[in-house]
């Protein structure tokens, strides 16, 4: 049996999630996919500071951070050309307008669902 695909080999990831258990699960999944570094933020201000300090290769964004929308960070990532994936318990019902066409993974999700979504935003084939 082979291991998980190394889809994120040598990539630095910004993970923005306010639920500790979900962030730990995601961090493990990202490591299994080969991420070089996973920087974590539970609040918008911290995430924006991490982005200012170092541009990631990829970001995963919970849409609602303790009642605060993550969209200002999504704007900043878009301006820098950083691919990102929304992760939310609300599904597409949680947002519209500018972000309606963005890729979303709805919680709860599996490793396979996350892998397919990341492959899509990275332009990878057959993860």
Structure characterization notes:
This protein has 127 residues and is an alpha/beta fold. It has a single domain, classed as Rossmann fold (3-Layer(aba) Sandwich), CATH 3.40.50.2300. The protein has 4 helices and 7 strands, in the order βαβαβββαββα. The chain has helices at residues 20-32, 44-53, 71-80, 111-122; strands spanning 12-16, 37-41, 58-62, 64-65, 68-69, 84-88, 104-106. The strands form 2 sheets. A 5-stranded parallel β-sheet has the order 2-1-3-6-7, sandwiched between helices. Strand 4 and strand 5 form a beta hairpin.
CATH-defined architecture? 3-Layer(aba) Sandwich
Estimated share of beta-strand residues: 15-25%
Give the H and E element order. EHEHEEEHEEH
Q: What is the makeup of the main sheet? A: 5 strands, parallel
As for the CATH topology, it is Rossmann fold
Q: In terms of quaternary structure, what is this?
A: single chain
Basic shape: globular
Give the spatial strand order of the biggest sheet. 2-1-3-6-7
Proportion in helices: 25-40%
Overall pLDDT score: 90
Count of beta strands: 7
Total number of distinct structural domains? 1
Radius of gyration computed on alpha carbons: 14 Å
Helix tally? 4
Structural class: alpha/beta
Distance between the termini: 15 Å
Unreliable sequence segments? none
Which CATH C-level class is it? Answer: Alpha Beta
CATH homologous superfamily placement = Response regulator
């Amino acid at each position: 049996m082979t291991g998980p695909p190394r889809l994120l080999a040598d990539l630095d990831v910004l993970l923005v999630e306010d639920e500790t258990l979900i962030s730990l699960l995601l961090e493990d999944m990202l490591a299994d996919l080969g991420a070089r570094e996973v920087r974590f933020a539970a609040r918008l201000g911290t995430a924006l500071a991490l982005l200012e300090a170092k541009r990631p290769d990829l970001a995963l964004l919970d849409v609602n951070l303790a009642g605060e929308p993550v969209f200002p960070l999504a704007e900043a990532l878009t301006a820098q050309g950083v691919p990102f994936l929304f992760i939310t318990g609300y599904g597409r019902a949680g947002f519209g307008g500018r972000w309606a066409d963005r890729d979303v993974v709805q919680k709860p999700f599996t490793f396979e669902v996350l892998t397919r979504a990341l492959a899509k935003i990275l332009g990878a084939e057959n993860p």
